[in-house]
Amino acid sequence: MVAGRKVIFALVALALIAVVAGIVFRQLFLSDSEESLPHTLTLSGNIEAHESVLSFKTVQSRIVQLPFNEGQWVAKGTTVAAVDDTDYRQQVSIAEANQVIQQRQVDASRQNLAVAGKTIAADQAELAQRKLDYRRSVDLSRRGFVSAAALDQAQTTLKLATTALERDRALRTLVERNVDVAQAGVRNSEQALTLARIVHGYTILTAQFDGVITVRQAELGEMVVPGTPVLTLADLDHIWLRAYLNETDLGKVKLGEEITVKTDSYPNKQYKGRLSFISSKAEFTPKSVETHAERVTLVYRVKIDIDNPNHELVPGMPADALIALHQAGSA
User: Fold this and answer.
1) Measured between alpha carbons, how far is 326 from 254 in angstroms, rounded to an integer?
2) Digit-coded pLDDT (tens) for 271-293
3) CATH number for position 145
């Protein structure tokens, strides 16, 4: 009997030891394993920048200035290319000369208008005198002091003065129209000069923002036509990460959430990013992915805007985006 109790106590002790060992094992290993479960989603991609392809507008000429090479930094407003502007400077000179001519025509027309005004004033004075003479002739004719021939002469003179006034008034109207036409010519010449200066300004290409020359498509001395790409300028102040999100992870992220970005080039640094775009259409993983199995997976293209104040991140650099899934899921 005593031996049986000892066996039972021994079994119970072993059971307790097993339970305690299981608890300890769970705490030491399983809890660590649970904590090691991924709470972040990692997306890999490449840095890209907003780029502007610079080309000459309207003008066609030979490149005479191309001071920057690929990889060089340029500030906003810097001249990055220029073409021979001889023809376009000549067009500006012609437009300036034409404007002077048009202004002189206005001055001449205004002088003619002033002369027409003085002529009409003289006509009016003449007409007033002829009317007075005619009334006197009529009065004297009634009293028998003036012959019928003299009265007819006074009447004819009055008609001639009236006709002269009407003629000169018509001429003044014509001169007024000439002044309007000349003034319109001045306005047209001003617009032509403005256009010539604008076109001349197209002979110089300037950087529209601070950036880096990523591609130089033309060479010094090359003939360019309107729209021919000359330089590509990348804006390093506004960069973004192009990455692809698996279809199964689509519900784990949201637009606008903050994202941490890391690179192999700067392993000890983290960059703040924001998920700014998720494609509305799924596509197959790009061919740049090495394995065929991964390439046939449906993914969604995403865009992550990144703060890059020091311009450390450059286009083409590989980077990883770390998305906190518990933050995305709590939304």
Assistant:
1) 12
2) 999 999 998 888 876 655 544 44
3) 1.10.287.620
